[in-house]
Amino acid sequence: MTEPLLEVAGLTRHYEVKRGLVFxxxxxxxxxxxxxxxxxxxxxxxALVGESGCGKSTTARLVLRLxxxxxxxxxxxxxxxxxxxxxxxxxxxxxxxxxxxxPFASLNPRMxxxxxxxxxxxxxxxxxxxxxxxxxxxxxxxxxLADYHAQRYPHEFSGGQRQRIGIARALAxxxxxxxxxxxxxxxxxxxxxxxxxxxxxxxxxLGLSYLFIAHDLAVVKHMADRVAVMYLGQIxxxxxxxxxxxxxxxxxxxxxxxxxxxxxPRRDRAHVVATGDxxxxxxxxxxxxxxTRCPFVVDRCRVExxxxxxxxxxxxxxxxxxxxxxxxxAELAASExxxxxxxxxxxAARRAATPITERSG
Length: 361
Fold this sequence. Notes:
The strands form two sheets. An eight-stranded mixed β-sheet has the order 6-7-8-3-9-10-12-11, with helices on both faces. It has a four-stranded antiparallel β-sheet with strand order 2-1-4-5. The longest helix is centred in the last third of the chain and has 25 residues, at 329-353. The protein is globular. The chain has eleven helices and twelve strands. It has helices at 56-63, 86-92, 113-123, 129-142, 159-171, 189-206, 217-223, 241-246, 251-258, 299-303, 329-353; strands at 6-19, 25-40, 45-49, 71-76, 79-80, 96-99, 177-181, 209-214, 226-231, 234-240, 309-312, 315-317. It is α/β, with parallel strands linked by helices.
């Protein structure tokens, strides 16, 4: 069995919150990432998904050592990078790159595209001036742009073209791993498909591995080989993408899938709705962190934190009731009927108490 390209074990990042006139009094700790573990194989795409604020982007930056972990380890190509400093860490950065979410804010507006793409080559001492210029031209063609685009500035391009430039910059030093931090969320839908297809083509050509951060599950379904679902700083389910979409085992995963718009509303589909708001990461609930919103909660969920347990081949779930939850759409709808009826009655009562002139619809 080959060694994974990336292995993350118990990765944690806590932020201390201070208050007072001089911010000297500790007021609590934000548990942004709290014990995350996963592996990424060579040539694979692992998607990290979840609601905003669940810790996806923080995890991505921890993997790249853009921020320092509170605890845990990150092993890349068999080396623990959390123990590295100075020149060895700088040299390793050639093998690990990132594509940021905002394709405009991530590019220096005062530099030409050619300068932007040449900069990482200069930083890492790769080639002379002539070879770097040739490399810039090759990178532009690789992402579907022309040689003459090297003389232009970022504001002269569309959003999709700017993201292609960001991808070209990440490829400049020939990395093995690229972290894609919601790379298409700021783009139009038609352009999203072009960029996603470009990333997949580049993966096939160059043997790249992607850690793909996203909240759009329709994009994830097209892009990922495996999916890890995060909630309040922890991974609650991880497994092959096909299995996650066909048979999700964690109630939170089912909630996320239920939020995907349906092209055919008459089609029968399992539907789980989480109630209430996401708890504060400064004060996460005891036991399962999802129990305050879960429609299947039992007493055990409130006091005992579940661990990731194998539920099928390569499919792990952190849920005490994963094995007994309804699997089919009909069974799920029947189990949710009391909750749905209660919600409908509450809505009707509120609407009846609201004057007609104040109703929005």
